[in-house]
Specification:
The complex is a heterodimer of chains A (about 850) and B (about 375).
Chain A: E1 2-4, H1 5-8, H2 19-28, E2 32-38, E3 44-56, E4 64-69, E5 77-81, E6 91-100, E7 106-107, E8 110-112, E9 115-117, E10 120-121, H3 155-158, E11 164-169, H4 180-191, E12 215-217, E13 225-232, H5 241-249, H6 257-269, E14 273-277, E15 285-289, E16 295-297, E17 303-305, E18 311-314, E19 319-322, E20 326-327, E21 340-346, H7 349-359, H8 364-371, H9 377-391, E22 396-405, E23 413-420, E24 440-442, H10 443-448, H11 454-463, E25 467-470, E26 476-480, H12 491-502, H13 524-538, E27 541-543, E28 549-550, H14 554-557, E29 570-571, E30 582-583, H15 588-600, E31 606-616, E32 629-639, H16 645-658, E33 665-668, E34 676-689, E35 695-706, H17 708-714, E36 720-726, E37 749-758, H18 763-774, E38 778-787, E39 796-805, H19 814-832, E40 835-836
Parallel strand pairs in A: 12-15, 27-31
Antiparallel strand pairs in A: 1-11, 2-11, 3-4, 3-6, 4-5, 6-7, 6-10, 8-9, 13-21, 13-22, 14-21, 15-18, 16-17, 18-19, 19-20, 23-24, 23-26, 25-26, 28-30, 29-30, 31-32, 32-36, 33-34, 34-35, 35-36, 37-39, 37-40, 38-39
Chain B: H1 2-19, H2 23-39, H3 43-54, H4 59-66, H5 75-111, H6 130-144, E1 148-149, E2 155-157, H7 158-161, E3 181-183, E4 186-188, H8 194-202, E5 207-216, E6 228-239, H9 243-258, E7 264-271, E8 274-283, E9 311-320, H10 322-327, E10 335-343, H11 344-352, H12 359-362, H13 365-368
Parallel strand pairs in B: 1-5
Antiparallel strand pairs in B: 2-4, 3-4, 5-6, 6-10, 7-8, 8-9, 9-10
Helix pairs in contact in B: 2-5, 3-5, 6-11
The chains are: A alpha+beta (about 850), B alpha+beta (about 375).
Chain lengths: ~850, ~375
């Protein structure tokens, strides 16, 4: 909110405090000041002058010599200008020797092509004023001032620039401060100075002949209070100068004296007002919900179709205003208006907000009504507007008001208990909470943790407008909140009021004492995730963080089928854009997007991972009505020519090792997601023990090379290997403890086997057969060579393996080894047709 | 001829026999051999010398064999002279062998000299994302103080995100423009404070917890805004907690994050779920709270980190609103509490001087690779 200091000073004297000091003070009592604007910027030594003579520059065709008069007893000065829009008799701003312009640039006497120039004629640009501010301010050339302007005047005064404006940001709990007067109350307490009362004096004319308008409020919850006052014999004209000037500074366009007063009062006391041309109202006022599709043309010229949840002010025939937001143009005050109905009302803030949002309207009125205008401000606003109408003799105020109000809200009363801190049983007392201080203690001090003398508390609250009474026994303070403080609820609120003015710097940092030591620490899930991340970082992966919401095109880009479960994406009802419109069901598209970002920046070999949630509707039902399931998902991307399916497979096995699941991994070379290369990918199946020697096989993800089509869609290389693993189900579980086995004391024996098998026999199958055949003395099978080509028949491959044999019980004898090896060979042959290579 | 040669042999033996009674004879022989040994420049030539001196048919073997011809009364003396000289030759041989082997090894090692500036192509160390490093760093502080690290859903009910936090639907603090909804009463949590309520509902005081996580708001992406960002909520509920305790804890936190000399200050603020509410500033770690940076070379002297104010806004906090406690069935007449919430992304940017929030979400590896160092990078 803009706070014009000269306006503020009308109600509280801030003499002795600079704008900066006031701003600092406001911050200390909870009003953040986002900026201090001095309207004149750095303007200095710029005065008005009258051009009394213009001559051509003898040496420069484009320059002119002007003679300027600055009034009696002042020297006439010659100034050279290149501007063409000046004429004899014009009054213009002149920067004199040593002057400073709005932006701080300096002007000095000088010589231009042999002619002396004692300053510079200024345009609006150099003075920081636009056409909105002053007529001629936007002209390319010199600012020509009104002919009536006196010469020799400081331009800051002439253009109303000698003003400070603070940009104060208000917190949502202080709707009472959304006005000059509201902030003046706070400033007065802050500076310990008097707040001057508002001028609310006016005289009304008794007019028995006139029947008041009828007033009907359909739903008093939406409009708890409505007050209308008639003003007759109005002379519509321009506003008085002070009102015009203040509205201009506050950025409000001046229309005419009546409209200006409604806006002025809104800014001054925070009560939105509206003036209807009474002659255009047909019958009385009805405050009602709009009919669906009902139309109204607003003051801004827009015609809008209304909905039934929007509140309107209507007459007997039509809607005449969008309640609390904007008036209608049909009944608005115009130059020919002679009688008005001045509306001051109180609306339900939620309804105003919803309507304003739905229609995309943001006005000074809606802004205040959304935050809440208090019950009593309705009459203050009316009185203030009438006082201004009366003061400036704009019309006759008629002594009949129409008003409907719900019951007056009761003032909030909060009791603060005061007690001697000498408690009888301090250790068990919940009221004194163990304190045995020899001073008075009260609820406020309890919460703040410091001792503030009761009279200081009383003083601060009283200055803030609270009524404070001490009970006879001295055990209680009865605090009554002023009616504009709708935010006060409990003694905690009073504690805040007290400490705001007592000073937060008085709060003494002290450690948390006592209390049982709570069982703290990371959850198992967090610990597991941290360990997993360390492993991945050790494998050279960088952790990525991508947005949880994705584009509606992402699943198409990764080629996910129309009936895939991944299509059950939860949609955001009010997304920022279609790029962020759905909650993801897979991390892969976001990861591929990150890959693209990196490849675009010429990174060609890198590893990324992300652990994040996906959001799955319960029972696949969309749109969702209950909270979805959130699953922890790991996504890894290996990118570059040195990567392949197998490097990612190592990563997967390492990850599973961390959870003691490596041995439970089963790979399946089909049924994986469509973003993977059909021949270089695998489905990840993990066999989980479910007790009683039973297990269950679950699909937990898939990995492999990116499908070339997907690579093309994302405009990335084909050397991208991607893994997605659903961690939910084991990441939350404690990893089973290792049961250690004694290592064998007997020597291991290694035997190599060179086999020739058909091409389609999987190496893993050979390894499994060997392991099964050998049993527990098999300590490892390693494939060290696979060969196809010369010396191997087409359709066959040669596989070289080495088998490590070791018994835990004895040294293996030669004949035992030979026997085992023979068994391996015969089993391999019978099950796969493998033959020993010749 | 034979007679003559026999004579010569006899004569020579006589000479030898005369010689072999003298020490000098052996000294000379020994010195000559050792000289040859020391001159040897390869293990091969050394071996030749060894064979000709100590071999089966070598000089010293002959001498030993000749001992039998020596008069038995001289034999021990002569024998000792031979053995001593021979031992010295053997020692010289051993030394020479060691010398030559060392020389050979040194030559080999020298020939194996590598260029240590070459890097082998390999996968280096990765790094945890800087945001998560900050989260872990701060979470560790609270864990050390007995805080529980809790988590709660990212898609939340209106109740937990607003209603229970004393922000009813017509509350001005609730701006639908800022919150992303997925259903009438379901939304992407706009604050980690939602986790407070869930924990208070199922835990009895005393409570000490933090809840880090992702939060979402309808903010367009720019240098200081992101529709998804990270917060950490903290909550302490116990008997007799005061604003002074809140300050004590947060002052310690600020010192932990920004250094031992950090000061903190409270400014009044407003959150629906705390009363009184405060903004907490930490003195700027960069300029030490002076707001001045004289090292700038662009003509300005304002500290860039704190924008010349000397203070950095780090979090919002306050005493838990009585209504919030009541909402969770905690009696506010017995228990008080305080809560605080901080923007992890913002703190990350401040700590690492990241000028634009967007860097944190671009996931460019050359950016991320800068964060390999420190206790929290893995």
């Amino acid at each position: 909110m803009k706070l014009l200091l000269s306006w503020l000073n009308e109600y509280v004297d801030t003499k002795g405090f600079s704008a900066e000091q006031l701003a600092d003070n406001l911050v200390n009592i909870g009003f953040e000041v986002e900026g201090i604007e001095y309207l004149a910027g750095k303007i200095d030594n710029v005065f008005t002058g009258k051009i009394i003579e213009i001559n051509k520059h003898p040496n420069a065709e484009r320059l002119q010599l002007c003679k300027l008069d600055f009034g009696k007893d002042k020297e006439v000065l010659q100034i050279v200008t290149a501007a063409k829009n000046v004429a004899v008799g014009d009054i213009v701003p002149v920067a004199l020797d040593g002057a400073s312009l709005f932006d701080g640039s300096r002007i000095y006497n000088g010589e231009l092509r042999g002619e002396k120039s004692y300053g510079m004629l200024c345009g609006g640009n150099e003075l920081g004023v636009s056409e909105d501010w002053v007529v001629g301010g936007g002209v390319d050339g010199i600012l020509i001032l009104d002919k009536k302007t006196k010469v020799g005047q400081d331009i800051k005064k002439v253009l109303d620039l000698d003003e400070y404006v603070l940009d104060v940001s208000l917190t949502a709990n202080r709707p009472d401060c959304q006005s000059v007067y509201g902030l003046a109350r706070e400033v007065a307490v802050m500076l310990k100075r008097e707040i001057k009362p508002l001028n609310l004096k006016y005289k009304a004319i008794e007019d028995a002949k006139n029947k008041p308008f009828s007033l009907e409020i359909k739903d008093s919850t939406l409009c708890p209070r409505y007050m209308g006052t008639s003003v007759r014999n109005i002379k519509i004209a321009l506003s008085p100068d002070l009102i015009k000037k203040r509205l201009k500074i506050m950025g409000v366009k001046s229309i005419n004296n009546i409209v200006d007063i409604t806006n002025y009062v809104l800014l001054e006391v925070g009560q939105p007002l509206h003036a209807f041309d009474a002659s255009l109202l047909e019958g009385g006022i009805v405050v009602r919900n709009a009919k669906d599709g009902e139309k109204i043309t607003l003051l801004n010229g827009e015609e809008i179709a209304l909905k039934s949840d929007m509140l309107v002010i209507a007459d007997k025939v039509k809607a005449v205003a969008l309640a609390g937001i904007m008036g209608g143009s049909e009944t608005s005050v115009s130059d020919s208006t002679t009688e008005i109905l001045l509306e001051s009302a109180n609306f339900a803030k939620g309804n105003i907000r919803n309507t304003a949002r739905a229609l995309g309207l943001k006005t000074d009125s809606s802004h205040r009504n959304e935050k809440g205008v208090d019950y009593f401000s309705v009459e203050v606003g009316t009185a203030r507007a009438l006082a201004l109408i009366y003061e400036h003799k704009i019309g006759d105020i008629i002594d009949v008001k129409i008003e409907k109000s719900v019951e007056k809200p009761k003032p909030k009363v909060i009791n603060i208990s005061i007690r001697d801190a000498q408690c009888a049983s301090p250790t068990s007392c919940v009221i004194c909470r163990g304190r045995t201080l020899g001073v008075q203690q009260n609820d406020i001090c309890d919460l703040l943790g410091i001792k503030i003398p009761t009279n200081t508390i009383v003083d601060i609250l009283t200055r803030l407008g609270f009524k404070v009474q001490e009970s006879k026994d001295g055990e209680k303070l009865k605090v009554t909140a002023p009616n504009f403080r709708t935010d006060i609820e409990s003694y905690a609120c009073l504690a805040e009021e007290v400490i705001r003015f007592y000073g937060y710097d008085k709060i003494i940092a002290s450690p948390i004492k006592g209390g049982e030591i709570s069982q703290g620490g990371y959850s198992i899930r967090d610990k597991n995730i941290n360990a997993l991340k360390s492993l991945l970082v050790g494998m050279g992966c960088f952790e990525a963080i991508t947005y949880s919401f994705v584009s509606n095109k992402h699943l198409d880009m990764v080629g996910v089928g129309k009936d895939s479960y991944l299509r059950d994406e939860i949609e955001i009802l009010n997304p920022l854009s279609s790029d962020y419109s759905r909650m993801r069901t897979t991390l892969v598209p976001s990861m591929l997007h990150a890959v693209r970002q990196n490849e675009m920046r010429k990174h060609s070999d890198f590893r990324l991972f992300e652990i994040a949630n996906v959001y799955v509707p319960i029972e696949d039902k969309l749109p969702i009505k209950t909270l979805p399931t959130e699953l922890d998902i790991l996504c890894i991307a290996f990118v570059g020519k040195n990567e392949d399916f197998y490097s990612l497979k190592i990563a997967l096995k390492n990850v599973l090792s961390l959870f003691m699941l490596k041995e439970k991994l089963v790979l399946q070379d089909k049924d994986f997601e469509e973003w993977l290369h059909p021949s270089k990918s695998a489905n990840i199946i993990i066999e989980f023990d479910i007790g009683a020697k039973n297990s269950i096989k679950l699909e937990k993800g898939c990995f492999g090379a990116i499908h070339p089509k997907v690579a093309k869609n994302f405009d990335i290389s084909e050397n991208v290997y991607i893994l997605e693993l659903n961690l939910s189900g084991f990441i939350e579980e404690e990893v089973p403890k290792t049961i250690a086995q004694a290592t064998s004391k007997f020597p291991p024996v290694t035997r190599d086997l060179a086999l020739v098998v058909k091409d389609d026999i999987l190496v893993g199958e050979l390894v499994n057969i060997i392991k099964k055949t050998v049993g527990e003395i098999c300590k490892g099978v390693e494939v060290f060579d696979i060969y196809k080509g010369e010396q191997v028949e087409t359709g066959y491959k040669s596989v070289a393996l080495s088998v490590v044999l070791q018994s835990d019980k004895a040294t293996l004898k030669d004949n035992e080894i030979v026997e085992v090896m023979n068994k391996i060979i015969s089993n391999l042959e019978s099950e796969t047709g493998a033959k020993l290579r010749a | 001829m034979i007679i003559f040669s026999n004579f010569c042999e006899k004569f020579l033996r006589m000479v030898k026999i005369m010689q072999i009674h003298e020490q000098k004879f052996y000294d000379d022989k020994r010195d000559a051999t050792i000289l040859a040994i020391n001159k040897a420049n390869s293990l091969e030539s050394l071996e030749e010398i060894r064979l000709s001196a100590l071999g089966k048919t070598g000089e010293w073997a002959l001498l030993s064999r000749g001992l039998k011809d020596v008069d038995s009364s001289f034999r021990p003396i002569v024998g000792k002279m031979i053995t001593d000289a021979r031992t010295e030759v053997e020692m010289a041989l051993e030394d020479a062998k060691n010398r030559l082997e060392n020389e050979a090894l040194e030559a080999r090692l020298a020939s194996e000299k590598i260029d240590i500036t070459i890097d082998k192509k390999s996968i280096g160390l990765g790094a945890i994302h800087p945001i998560n490093q900050t989260t872990k760093r701060i979470a560790d502080f609270f864990v050390s103080k007995g805080f529980l690290v809790a988590s709660s859903p990212e898609i939340e009910t209106d109740y937990y995100n607003f209603e229970a936090l004393n922000t009813p639907s017509d509350h001005p603090a609730r701006d639908t423009q800022d919150t992303l909804f997925v259903a009438k009463n379901l939304l992407l949590r706009s604050q980690t404070s939602a986790g407070q309520i869930r924990l208070m509902e199922k835990t009895k005081p005393p409570i000490r917890m933090i809840a880090p996580g992702k939060v979402y708001r309808a903010d367009a992406v720019d240098a200081t805004h992101s529709p998804m960002f990270h917060q950490m909520e903290g909550l302490v509920v116990d008997k007799g907690l005061t604003l002074c305790n809140l300050k004590g804890l947060l002052e310690e936190l600020a010192k932990y994050i920004f250094g031992e000399n950090t000061k903190t200050r409270f400014r009044p603020s407003y959150f629906p779920f705390t009363e009184p509410s405060v903004e907490v500033d930490a003195s700027c770690f960069m300029c030490g709270g002076t707001g001045v940076d004289n090292t700038r070379d662009d003509g300005h002297t304002g500290c860039k980190v704190c924008k010349g104010t000397g203070w950095i806004e780090i979090l919002g906090a306050g005493m838990v609103n009585r209504r919030v406690l009541e909402c969770c069935n905690i009696n506010p007449n017995i228990y008080t509490g305080f809560a605080f919430g901080m923007g992890i992304d913002r703190i990350t940017c401040i700590m690492h001087r990241v000028s634009d929030l967007r860097y944190l979400f671009e996931n460019e590896v050359s950016f991320l690779a800068q964060f390999k160092g420190g206790n929290f990078s893995i």
